[in-house]
Write a structure and sequence with these properties.
The structure is a single chain. By secondary structure, the protein is an all-alpha fold. The protein has a single domain, classed as MFS general substrate transporter like domains (Growth Hormone, Chain: A), CATH 1.20.1250.20. α4 runs antiparallel to α5, α7 runs antiparallel to α14 and α18 packs antiparallel against α19. The longest helix is centred in the first third of the chain and has 31 residues.
């Protein structure tokens, strides 16, 4: 994932270099998710019928091509979107197929906790990506900040393919080719109320998660401009974003532990309601002292992550074993469709509400990506009463 957040880290610099509007910058961030959702169901369904290690390696090679291509050839909006699409398709070949590789090898009471750790390492990967971009760009330029991290997925692919033991499962006996959009299997998954609920929840979660992460460095730049002389943020903004994302990693694991005790549904509703409200509060807090801004940003990021592992563990537990690959594919497709929408929705709301120099516009932008989470308790109350809790 070393190239995953490079564009988010360099968004202010590249926006100025290429004279991008906020909406255009959001489109580049969303292009990653276009590549992801366009291929994830194929990659994940493919794990139902072939060795998942091969799927993972193929995704890593594609991710390397996307990151390196961006650094070597991107010249503006169109090229940046193209290589972000390739990078997204590459990550699609690793994230959920990697979860399938893991869930096939671990079962019983430890499965939920293991999945929580796996999904939390997504946040660690993003933090490392932000930090690396923040180090490389000032020293060697923005192109090197894309090209050097391209080695990360290449190394990951070979590690998984050669060091992970191959196993045979009964689910990999189908002979029909994997479909890009296995609609028939998805209908069976959606017929299960619990599986459908976790999938819808993941959609709302990812709109907020990836929208806020894509614009985090830009928000920090906005808040830095409001600080009194001599009171600006004392560190590199990309490095701050990396630390904030890293600090949010335990929230996913701890949130899953809380959910195991109080119930998945109540915890998911509480965490979503809290994160949606906190995002709006964060925008209005931008003029405060930088230490208070950072404290609220860390708190907000923890709330955003608090239900992440719980949603994924719930889906894995709810999905029929013979459809787990298709269920994970649909779940990831829905979630990362939210990820595609989030950055663009944020940028569009920012433009429509007055631009990135307006504090109220930032509040509208955070409110736009958090609207689904704010509505989650109402949706569950209206439509989820008959759904079984799993």
């Amino acid at each position: 994932m070393l190239g995953f957040a490079t564009f988010a880290a360099l968004l202010p610099e590249l926006s100025e270099l290429w004279q991008l509007s906020n909406a255009e910058a959001g489109l580049i961030g969303s292009a990653f998710f276009l590549g992801y959702i366009g291929t994830v169901s194929y990659w994940t369904a493919l794990t139902d019928r072939t060795d998942g290690r091969r799927v993972y390696l193929a995704g890593c090679l594609l991710g390397t091509a996307g990151a390196a291509g961006f650094g070597l050839a991107a010249q503006g909006l169109a090229g940046a979107m193209l290589f972000q699409v390739l990078l997204g398709a590459g990550v699609a070949g690793t994230y959920m197929p990697g979860l399938r590789l893991l869930s096939d090898r671990i079962s019983g009471p430890y499965q939920s906790r293991t999945i929580a750790f796996y999904t939390s390492f997504f946040g660690i990967g993003m933090a490392l990506s932000l930090a690396l971009a923040g180090l490389l760009a000032p020293a060697w330029g923005w192109r090197a900040a894309f090209v050097i991290p391209a080695a990360g997925p290449l190394v990951a692919g070979f590690l998984v393919f050669f060091l992970l033991e191959k196993i045979e499962t009964g689910a990999k006996t189908a002979t029909a080719p994997a479909q890009l959009f296995p609609v028939a299997a998805w209908r069976k998954v959606l017929a299960d109320r619990a599986s459908a609920g976790y999938t819808l929840g993941y959609l709302a979660h990812c709109i907020e998660l990836f929208g806020s992460r894509a614009w985090m460095v830009a928000f920090l730049a906005f808040a830095a401009g409001l600080q009194p002389p001599g009171e600006a943020f004392p560190w590199n903004l990309a490095a701050i974003a990396a630390v904030v994302n890293l600090a949010a990693v335990p929230a996913s694991i701890l949130g899953n532990e809380v959910a195991l005790r109080v119930g998945r549904r109540p915890w998911i509703q509480l965490a979503m309601l809290g994160s949606g409200a906190c995002g709006i509060a964060l925008a209005f807090a931008a003029p405060l002292h930088w230490a208070l801004v950072l404290a609220l940003l860390v708190f907000y990021s923890n709330l955003v992550m608090a239900e992440s592992a719980t949603l994924t563990a719930g889906l894995v537990a709810a999905a029929p074993a013979e459809l787990r690959g298709a269920a994970l594919g649909l779940y990831s497709l829905a979630g990362f469709a939210g990820g595609m929408l989030g950055p663009s929705l944020f940028g569009l709301a920012l433009d429509l509400a007055g631009g990135k120099e307006s504090g109220a516009a930032w509040a509208w932008a955070y409110g736009a990506i958090g609207a689904g989470c704010l509505a989650a308790p109402l949706v569950v109350r209206l439509f989820g009463r008959a759904a079984p809790v799993r």
